[in-house]
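User: As part of a screening pipeline, I want to sanity-check one entry by hand. Below is the sequence and the SMILES for zinc ion. Please return the complex as structure tokens so I can compare it with the automated output.
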Amino acid sequence: MKRDFAPKVKLRRGIVIYKRRRRWWYFGFFVLLVFLGILAFYAYNNVFASETVPKLTGKSLEESKDLTGQEGFGLKISKEFSKYPEGMVISQTPKSGELLNRGGIILLVVSRGTKRTLSEEVSTGAKNPLPAESEKIELEAKKEADDEIFQTKASKWVVCIDPGHQEHANISSEPVGPNSSITKEKCKGGATGINSKTPEYKIVLQMGLKLRDLLEKEGVKVVMIRITNDVDISNAERAQIANKAKANLFVRIHCNGSSNASSNGIMILYPSKNEWCAPIYNESKRAAQFVQQELVGACGRPDKGIVSRGDITGFNWSKVPVILPEICFLSNPEEDALLNKESFQNEVAQGLFKGVMKYLESGA
Ligand SMILES: [Zn+2]
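Assistant: Here is the complex for your manual check:
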């Protein structure tokens, strides 16, 4: 019994001590491996994985893609009007000769050719969209921060688009202007198609989104008051969103309605010179004139002119130039049918877009 018992204890002790030593040894080895791994990673990235950025300025976009593809670089491209031929790289970041990690992004500005003025545009075919596409082609765009660097010329402008009304009217009241004792409904229900029964809020959202796309293609920053119908935003709140965005222009899209089914055509409302809107009166009127002219030209409906109004909450709360295009009458059978057609909505969006751009380019 004794002989059997003694070696067993020794054996147990031996195992315990042995195991402890081995753990320390494993741990040390593991730390060393991690250290070497990190060292190798840095060495690889700094010495072996970086490449010299080739000279792309002055080359064609196609050539640049070939050159950078071989080196494993990604490209982020933005297009701008310039005096250089269309498709030519006019600047690059980082510059040629600098080191960049494989897979890194080179930002390129590519020429869109000479800019045609909007009046040339109109005379060469009013129904055509602006020439070369201006959208950013993004290849392996990794960092959102790059967008900041890559603002094209037009992005100095902000346009706020308010597709009028909403799915459910809000009839509780709000002051018609700051400190006003007069109140109005927060958001009235709009018109409805006399035959189609399509509600105004649906049509103006569709047109608003089309206008947004056209402006964004041109590099203009767009703030949408709403992109769905199921919202609850009062008219005063809408104006305050435009103020906060410091919009160069606040465009409130509506369709008209009348008890007289023969009423038709397009008009634009703009603020009056009342106690709230005097500072934005001139610019709003100027914008209304530009947009009305382009809108009527683009969709060929009767011109009902521009009209100033002092009783509109969404104007009185606005501190930025504001217009409210009343695009045709949903109470008119012919215009109701047109407003429900995608092709007509495209013409409206083109007209709004051209008018807004003309206003912005005139020194907004
Ligand atoms: Zn309306």
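Points to compare against the pipeline: Residues 220 and 227 are 17 Å apart (CA to CA). The first helix runs from residue 2 to 48.
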